Amino acid sequence: MSALESHLAELERRHEALDRDIAREWAHPGADEIKLAELKRRKLQLKDEIAKLKAECQAETTIH
Questions:
Q1: How many of the other CB atoms lie within 10 Å of CB of 55?
Q2: Which strand (E) or helix (H) includes residue 29?
Q3: For residues 25 and 39, is the Cβ–Cβ distance under 8 A?
Q4: What gap in Å lies between CA 46 and CA 10, rounded to an integer?
Q5: Distance between CA 16 and CA 7 in Å, rounded?
Q6: pTM score of the predicted model
Q7: Chain centroid, CA 20 distance in Å
Q8: Tens of pLDDT along 2-54?
Q9: Is the dihedral of CA 20, 26, 27, 30 positive or negative?
């Protein structure tokens, strides 16, 4: 596994963890909207970074 693939796997784990955090926050009555917005923003940033790295991985495999 390349360093890029390893980093991608870590980002995907963090993305899934944020998914769980968001679900837990929604489950609470009177969920903190600011906290939810921050969690969703971080999740979106990770999603964008994951998409970028997947494109790089794909480009790397087509070159080799």
A1: 10
A2: none
A3: yes
A4: 10
A5: 14
A6: 0.81
A7: 12
A8: 788 889 999 999 999 999 999 999 998 888 999 999 999 999 999 999 999 88
A9: positive
CB atoms within 10 A of CB 27: 8
Q: Work out the angle at residue 9's Cα, subtended by the Cα atoms of residues 4 and 15, and round it to the nearest 5 degrees.
A: 125
DSSP the chain: --HHHHHHHHHHHHHHHHHHHHHHHHHSTT--HHHHHHHHHHHHHHHHHHHHHHHHHHHHHHH-
User: Who contacts 26 (Cβ-Cβ below 8 Å, separation ≥6)?
Assistant: 36
* CA–CA distance, 13 with 21 (Å, rounded to integer): 12
As given in the structure block, the two tokens for residue 29 are 């009555």
C-alpha 4/C-alpha 16 separation (Å) is 19
The type of residue at 24 is R
